[in-house]
Amino acid sequence: MRRKLVSLFRIIVLVVIPCVSQTIFASDVFNGKEVFMRHCVACHGSSGEGSMPGLPNFKEGKTLFKNDSELMAIIRDGRGIMPSFNGLIKDDDIRDVAAYLRTFL
Ligand code: HEC
User: Fold this and answer.
1) Which residues line ligand 1 (CB under 6 A)?
2) Hey, whose CA ends up nearest to atom 2 of ligand 1?
3) What is the reported pTM?
4) Measured in angstroms, how far is the CA atom of residue 58 from the centroid of ligand 1?
5) Which CATH homologous superfamily contains domain 27-104?
6) 23-63, pLDDT tens digit by residue?
7) What pLDDT score does 9 carry?
8) Which residues pair with 86 in a beta bridge?
9) Distance from the CA of 6 to the center of ligand 1, in angstroms?
10) Residue ranges covered by each domain of the chain
11) Under a CB-based contact definition with an 8 Å cutoff, are residues 64 and 101 in contact?
12) 25 C-alpha to center of ligand 1: Å?
């Protein structure tokens, strides 16, 4: 009985938890970069510093103090002259591009 419990516990730790956490937490920054290069680079620049005045500088970190859901809401809904990407970019891609923004810091 005890042995069975131990092996069940092993299965949970080694198989179930990694599978579940992958789907919940993993974001793919490489895909995020592709999304950024397609949809964001024109305004935000390849270095994240912004290609014109009035744009946030992602290297300063002020933006990146925001948590993931705040960043994703800005990308989804737009802000100021930044257009909304709702429906244009899949939710997974929005999550990935938000993760990519953090690489500028
Ligand atoms: C048409 C130009 C334009 C495009 C395209 C654009 N942005 Fe923006 N973005 C802006 C501007 C301008 C602001 C500042 C808005 C404000 O605060 O009034 C901004 C703000 C942001 C902010 C908030 C920064 C902060 O500190 O609050 C994030 C995050 C962001 N953009 C991410 C993205 C991502 C990711 C993409 C691509 C999916 C993107 N933007 C595409 C112009 C753009």
Assistant:
1) 39-40, 42-44, 54-56, 62-63, 71, 74-75, 79-83, 85, 97, 101
2) 43
3) 0.83
4) 10
5) Cytochrome c-like domain (1.10.760.10)
6) 556 899 999 999 999 999 999 999 999 988 989 999 998 88
7) 63
8) 89
9) 50
10) 27-104
11) yes
12) 24
